[in-house]
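Saturday, quiet lab. Running sequence design on the structure tokens for the scaffold JK sent over.
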């Protein structure tokens, strides 16, 4: 079968995806050329089209989660959803103790919807692989399916939220909600309500550079303290997953898709930065192996370095700057295309599972900083986090944090 016939099949398979895979679609559209650009763009625009649950249905769902008489546990409970969620919807309420809360209530039957979507995704990826060998995507599929299945379990998400609260407890520019476990079940997550504005809403008012810088700095901290101190990443830098506080700090939300890395992986991330900075080819090669890439020829390493240089470049020079200095919004895509062609030419690579959320976060957050026009000394912010890096200390910190909050270690 030729490439264009495959492409048509791929399109019809992806067209059959339901709501939850919006997230996967967005994931894929940030992995350089995991999908042909035209589909990636189409997928990134998919919206949850499930109709909101109406009040009678919400009441029944709440009764199944908390039992009859659940209304007595709230002083107030909004009849209408305050926000849509990818697997359900969020209602605002107040507990009888007077705490303002957000209740994320899952739609029924989500496990089977997720499984159906994952089957479609597997089909799409294997078809894609037959037309294109730049990325061998079996591990990408494994990673996405595992994260997506974890997202179904709100008790797990509550533990992951506590983990973020712990990791960021000294970071006063970032607020993390606290789960209320007596009002939480695998399909209902009740947490403290955080007041804040959407980033888009703030940007629409053309705030001064100082404001944009403060917000960008808060986001940088929210993402990279957990990564470089604990080896944990929030895998979903989507605009709906944080809000701006009135003092330009941020509320970080949505802990459904996080990733706990092996401590040694972080060593690889830092080594790769140093290798790119110093143009040290052997070090780069070793760093990729530390990340989990295998069988890399010198040629493939060169191609991967083009991508790494794109991501690390803003961190190299000690000065205030935009995250990307070319004015060309297509620049990132052009690099991705060049890298993709290079990988095709040299026989392709199999990205390790860790690569998926790392790359997604770097690209997602980078494009937010770009959109904000923030001008910061990224180099200094990065060095403040990594200069004291020590793999054994990170391992100890990570293990004790996971134990304290009860997140099952996935590695
Ligand atoms: N603690 C909270 N306080 C206020 N609003 C919240 C809170 N948690 C979630 N929301 C709102 O609900 C939306 C969906 O929640 P989120 O956890 O991101 O769901 P999903 O995992 O489905 O993406 C958010 O974009 C936000 O608008
Ligand atoms: Mg979300």
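Result came back. Writing it out in full:
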């Amino acid at each position: 079968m030729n490439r264009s016939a495959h492409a048509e099949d791929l399109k019809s398979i992806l067209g059959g995806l339901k709501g939850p895979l919006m997230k996967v679609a967005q994931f894929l559209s940030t992995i350089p050329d995991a999908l042909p650009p035209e589909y990636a763009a189409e997928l990134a625009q998919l919206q949850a089209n499930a109709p909101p649950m109406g009040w009678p249905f919400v009441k029944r769902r709440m009764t199944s989660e908390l039992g009859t008489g659940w209304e007595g546990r709230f002083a107030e409970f909004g009849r209408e959803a305050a926000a849509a969620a990818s697997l359900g919807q969020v209602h605002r309420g107040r507990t009888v103790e007077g705490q303002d809360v957000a209740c994320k209530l899952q739609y029924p039957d989500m496990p089977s919807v997720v499984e159906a979507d994952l089957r479609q995704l597997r089909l799409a990826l294997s078809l894609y692989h037959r037309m294109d060998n730049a990325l061998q995507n079996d591990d990408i599929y494994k990673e996405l399916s595992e994260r997506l299945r974890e997202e179904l379990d709100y008790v797990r998400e509550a533990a992951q939220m506590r983990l973020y609260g712990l990791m960021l407890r000294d970071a006063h520019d970032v607020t993390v909600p606290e789960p209320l476990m007596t009002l939480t079940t695998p399909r209902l997550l009740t947490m403290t309500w955080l007041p804040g504005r959407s980033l888009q809403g703030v940007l629409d008012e053309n705030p001064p550079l100082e404001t944009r810088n403060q917000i960008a700095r808060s986001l940088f901290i929210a993402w990279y303290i957990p990564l470089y101190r604990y080896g944990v990443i929030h895998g979903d830098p989507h605009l709906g997953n944080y809000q701006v506080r009135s003092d330009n700090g941020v509320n970080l939300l949505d802990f459904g898709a996080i990733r706990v890395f092996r401590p040694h992986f972080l060593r690889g991330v830092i080594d790769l930065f140093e290798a790119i900075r110093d143009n040290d080819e052997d070090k780069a090669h070793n760093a990729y192996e530390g990340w989990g890439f295998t069988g890399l020829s010198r040629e493939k390493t060169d191609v991967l370095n083009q991508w790494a240089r794109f991501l690390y470049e803003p961190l190299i020079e000690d000065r205030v700057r935009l995250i990307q200095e070319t004015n060309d919004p297509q620049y990132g895509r052009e690099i991705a295309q060049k890298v993709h062609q290079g990988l095709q030419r040299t026989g392709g690579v199999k990205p390790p599972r860790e690569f998926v959320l790392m790359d997604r976060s770097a690209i997602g957050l980078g494009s937010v900083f770009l959109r904000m026009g923030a001008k910061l000394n990224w180099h200094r912010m990065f060095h403040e986090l990594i200069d004291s890096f020590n793999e054994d200390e990170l391992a100890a910190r990570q293990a004790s944090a996971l134990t304290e909050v009860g997140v099952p270690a996935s590695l």
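Notes for JK: Residues 3-48+112-132 form one domain. The longest helix spans residues 110-131. Ask whether to fix the surface positions before the next round.
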